[in-house]
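Aim 2, interim progress. The first record below pairs a target sequence with its structure tokens.
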Amino acid sequence: MIARYRRELSVAGAYGLLLVALAFTDFYRGDKLRVILVSSAPVLVAAAGMTLVILSRQIDISIGAQFSICGVVAGLLAKAGLPMALAVPLTALAGASMGAANGGLVAGLGLPSIVATLATKVSFEEALRLGREGESVKGIPDGFYWFGLGQAGGQALVVGLAAAVFLAFAWGLRHLASGRAVYAVGSDAEAARLAGIRPRRVVFGVFVAMGALSGLAAALNAARFPDVDPNHGKGLELQVIAAAVVGGVAISGGRGTLAGVLVGVLLLSTIGPALSFLGIPTPWEKAVQGAIILVAVASDAFNLRHRTHAGASLAAR
């Protein structure tokens, strides 16, 4: 049982060591941990969507562009006078429509997901650039900023909503037939098809879910600021892919848990402020994230090769 969750436990241990090491500095002075928790809440929601995609043996590198567009959509809807109870679901719907475009290209036309989402990433970014020309959405009603609850209440709501969505998807992956289908398709699409599962439908569904979750994450993130910056999603794809892979989700699909992704998100969300606190230049944060992805993917490749060789040796006997 412990061996099954070795990656998740090792990442949790690494995060614990990081927190202990920071305890010997002044890092915890002020509200740094609270700020990290609130800022990582939208990332956690987006990472849940990316986890579904990777589990099905796909990838989506357009999530940052989707996030940026959905943040602008949320701001414009609020500026138009829509209540947050309506603006947030509509923003998630906008994200789902972009996810459906990706799903159609991958599941419908059979394009490789990295090629399809690279194309949509460029298209989404150019559409946003032409539509906003880098201009933030300003003049948003006070009811949008922290959902009109003030900073303390708004922060609690952002974290609470993110946690509820994350736990719902974690439960669904474990207990629902649709969740088990995602694992089955990622492990062996042909075997899943023979078992009565429709792989293309599953793949289309995970891209739609990815889009909807990116929209929800963007709305939660946008509510943290009085103005909505159209560049908020830049680099998000690296962060959520790193969180998923570091948290034990196999880039080859079919293996991983959202519990590990949670630890991955917290670890990566803490590394940036910790590096900044220690006086290390900000660009190194991306370098560290890239290195973490490389190590995690290399570890998965090594483990897969080891299991393959072990299986072949067992069969030879």
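The second target in this work package is listed in the same format:
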Amino acid sequence: MPRRRHELGAPDYAILGLLRFGPRHGYELLPYFSRGGELGLVCTLGTPRLYAILHALEELELVQCETSPPSSGPPRKVFSLTEAGIEAFELWLSQPIRRLRQIRQDFLLKLYFSRLLPGHDTPGLIERQLAACRTVSEELQAAADAESAESFTRLVYQSRQATADATVRWLEAERRQSFASVPPTT
């Protein structure tokens, strides 16, 4: 019976993304999440947490597990994506993020996978995220303007808007770089 209470987060999607490239043992996934691993800068996982997530994803029927025959030592579990896992990952990858604090982890992971997946529209991903961040900035500006000049609430909204604006500038720079790396069509 599938688990109903596990809400998917950035580490779950990162695991789904890695399995998007093919079946793997848990120990093959682990180096990606170490402090020196490719994803470790934004998503660090130890062995117990990695296997807990894999188990949860299996219960949610997003991954399946098969036992590989041992060459030496005990049999190993090999994890692969199900169709539902592929769909969940693709949906996550295409959706912009509205919560600015999730940019540091979720969006960076999305960029990582978007750049690696053949044919994925990385410039489109950046454009959707830019639009979402601009909307958030405008909403925060309106909320700040509705408060009195001395209000702490106004200060908080302005601080969040500054973060949104900085994110927009970073995304614009990333967009320029992304478009510069796209080969021209003839």
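The domain at 10-94 is CATH 1.10.10.10 (Arc Repressor Mutant, subunit A). This observation will shape the mutagenesis plan for the next reporting period.
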